[in-house]
Amino acid sequence: MKIALGADQVGYSLKQAIRNYFVSRNFEVVDFGTDSPDRAVDYPDFAREVALAVSSGECERGVLVCGTGVGMTIAANKFPGARAAWCNDLYIAQQCRIHNNANILCMGGLVTTPRLAEAILDEWMETPFEYGRHVPRLAKLDVEFQIDHTDQKEQKFAEAVKNIPLGVAISPRKSVFGPLMFAGELEEGLQSASQAGFNAVELSLRCPDDVQEGVLAGLLKQNNLSLSAIATGQSCLHDRLCLCSPDASLREQTVERLKRHIDLAASFSARVILGGIRGKMVSSRDEQLAQRAGAVAAMKECAAYAGEKGVGLLLEPINRYETNFINTVQEGMDLIDEIGESSLKLLPDTFHMNIEEEDIALALRRAKHHVGYVHFADSNRMVPGKGHINFARILGTLLEIGYTGYVTVEALPLPTDREAVQMASGFLRSLWSR
Questions:
Q1: C-alpha pair distances (Å), 257 with each of 11, 117, 211, 271, 322
Q2: Sheet containing 104-108, strands listed edge to edge, beginning at the edge strand earlier in sequence
């Protein structure tokens, strides 16, 4: 574990003792200073460095010391993602972890002895966050950083936001694709999504045979959930069935696989996603042009079939590091217009947009008439609220353009599947309620 340290000149001596404590326990220490007890400095400068190191993920925990610890606490808590707790006894050290998931501890060099500090740090470092009922409460703190309380549109959108249902992406089987909850644990995933308050689940399927239609229908009903969409990228990852494949026979097999997904989706009034199943174009420019033409023809065939079945097809732009075919929202809109089938809509994903779009909100406004479904994941592909994307602004934009479809979390299951589902729900429910 990497620990960030910071202190002003009054807290210097205790900081040095704390540094020695961490080093003796084989923790990696990043010391942001100050480096002397003799030169006056401003404590907010060191609080800023430690808070940014922790909130960015560079360091997992941080410790700040000034005269009383109060100034450092106030300063550190100005930064989104920093949860700084003032502490001067073992009980507070324990409770700030259990209830508040405090990632920065603040102490006073004038009121805390090195021996007491070591005991406090022992308690703080060894106590885990309890999750459960504390998750939605912390989510409200995270949301406060994103909301502009001067925005006169809050009241206007208070009712409209209730029309946007929330979903979470899970998988009935394990996959090399990481951003899925409860991969291989369908029943547990459905139960967890329901308990967390989600309205729906998106299923990532390698093949429609991954689920039995009747069994799935029963489980969804039992958990009071709907099926929002079927993601299809596992077909490309595991079976080489990719729309961009230069092999015409593989493209034909991909189309047939997608039609089977569409048939399954029709039974649940769900949508089918064309994301990772596009694959990548390879080789020379001329060969890539041929691959693109083959992929477009295949998607047009699938879109026509989906229209006949009353199923919405969703084109998801994916960042340049994963594919070279449709990276931006504008490219997605252009392809939808090129294909010209009303069943085909756009699926913007905030994780990919954070990489590819200059302005996420502006891209959504421009895509107003194309958007049919939305994925939420933060900048680090963790659940919303754990990175630097401003979801309050994105939600406001969705409401401005009149969007009333699903918002589904497709994120990494960290630290665990259940905790990620709880954190996602807590953050989004808090954001929706505001």
A1: 64, 61, 14, 15, 22
A2: 28-31, 2-7, 61-66, 104-108, 84-86
Q: Which amino acid is at 311?
A: V
Element (H, E) at 17: helix 12-24
The gap from C-alpha 37 to its chain's centroid, in whole angstroms, comes to 42
d(CA 29, CA 148): 36
Alpha-carbon distance of 141 to 430, in angstroms, equals 9
Residue showing tokens 């047939």? 256
- For residue 4, give the H/E element and its range: strand 2-7
Domain 137-433 coded CATH 2.30.29.30: no
pLDDT in tens, 254-264: 999 999 999 99
Find where tokens 């470092």 sit: 125
The residue among 347, 346, 353 whose CA lies nearest residue 391 is 353
Q: Which CATH superfamily is domain 2-129 in?
A: Sugar-phosphate isomerase, RpiB/LacA/LacB (3.40.1400.10)
Tell me if 400 sits within 8 A of 363, measured CB to CB: no
Angle among Cα 64, 70, 72 to the nearest 5 degrees reads 35
Q: For residue range 405-426, list pLDDT tens digits in order.
A: 999 999 999 999 999 999 999 8
Residues with catalytic function: 316, 410
Residue 97 identity (one-letter amino acid): R
Other CB atoms within 10 Å distance of the CB of residue 159: 8
Lowest mean pLDDT across 21-30, 140-149, 226-235, 271-280 = 140-149
Distance CA 175, CA 273 (A): 17
Which residues, in sequence order, are CB contacts of 45 under 8 Å at separation 6+?
Answer: none
Domain locations in the chain as residue ranges: 2-129, 137-433
How far out from the chain centre does Cα 214 lie?
31
